């Protein structure tokens, strides 16, 4: 079945994308293979009609677009957005901890991490390393240990009899992972270990010394299809690499006739205020260089953005956490997310277009509104809408365990959302 082939490729993408830098590198590979031209923000751009281009900022955010055969000022631009980052544990700058012969690393929480599931897992380590080469030049490289290298063991229940009733996690003292045992005289630095890993992964690189890094621990267990009838996808970083994969595939599947764009922003999980975040200038800058500053406002008025970010499926053990009329069920379609306090950017016009396309394709859709007595999360949708002044829809597949080290989504929902976004990218009129 088509959705099974789609999901197998999705699982490969998830496994090869342990960090935002790896995810963007994988998407760039796909764009290169599809004939898209990589642009450099430092250069002058000469864009042509009916061509594909992409730009990477900081290695962790990406904007890819097709110029289309028609003028954007007449056709508008079909935009899809997602984010590349996920909550995790990041290694601190001076991380080495030596206690009782164990070598550990100090970590910092990134985003709203659900901490308890990080215990008793096989953990690996990946990210970006900045180094000085033998010629005195500063350069970057990606590293991925790609095997279990660390573990955060739980305290046995015999030593904490109230663990099942009231255990809390102190991120400073409880979370440093154990990497190895070392003698008391050991003076190995973490940068020494990184230098050795770079030599293993990239033998051609000549690294004089490591100058800095942005590294994250991640679950070494690969993604999988689970369920007696293969109904579910289980993986780390479904929020929101699942949407990144769907968005880039929808852009690649377009016939190129309509102006279309996919943006993948970093730093959504920590507020999006950065040079490459949704509340930064990245997307707006690309649009100005494509469309022209004066025409951009007119083009935006004819355009629409779909912000794709996963939604909370109704958990059968915690049904009371949802509004009774708005509890999305996994595998019953993507979720239109509504919040009248603008935590989501959906309005009646943007929701109607999605429903119309979905109905035309005979595909299911659902709606989500948070309980009126609970706080509502947010996405890049309201931020992008506010920055650009563009009509926006917030959509996402329902999932369980959001912000856990391992999450669960529906095997059919991902392909359903892809089909609708693919049709949206090729739609003659959206604004």
What's the layout of helices and strands?
Layout: H1 2-15, H2 20-33, E1 37-39, E2 52-57, E3 61-66, H3 72-75, E4 78-83, E5 88-99, E6 102-110, E7 123-133, E8 138-144, H4 163-166, E9 178-181, H5 190-201, E10 207-219, E11 224-226, E12 232-235, H6 238-253, E13 260-265, H7 282-291, H8 293-301, E14 304-308, E15 311-312, E16 335-337, H9 348-361, E17 366-368, H10 380-388, E18 391-396, E19 398-400, E20 407-410, H11 413-425
Parallel strand pairs: 1-2, 4-13, 4-14, 14-18, 15-19, 16-17
Antiparallel strand pairs: 2-3, 3-13, 5-6, 5-10, 6-9, 7-8, 7-10, 11-12, 12-20, 16-18, 19-20
Helix pairs in contact: 6-11, 7-8, 9-11
What does this structure look like?
- A hairpin with a 6-residue loop joins strand 19 and strand 20.
- Strands 1-2-3-13-4-14-18-16-17 form a nine-stranded mixed beta sheet, with helices on both faces. It has a six-stranded antiparallel beta sheet with strand order 8-7-10-5-6-9.
- Helix 7 crosses helix 8 (293-301) and helix 9 (348-361) crosses helix 11.
- The protein has two domains: 2-86 and 236-425, Zn peptidases (Aminopeptidase); 88-219, Aminopeptidase i, Domain 2 (Roll), CATH 2.30.250.
- The longest helix has 16 residues, at 238-253.
- The protein is built from eleven helices and 20 strands.
- The radius of gyration is 22 Å and the shape is globular.
- It is of the alpha/beta class and 431 residues long.
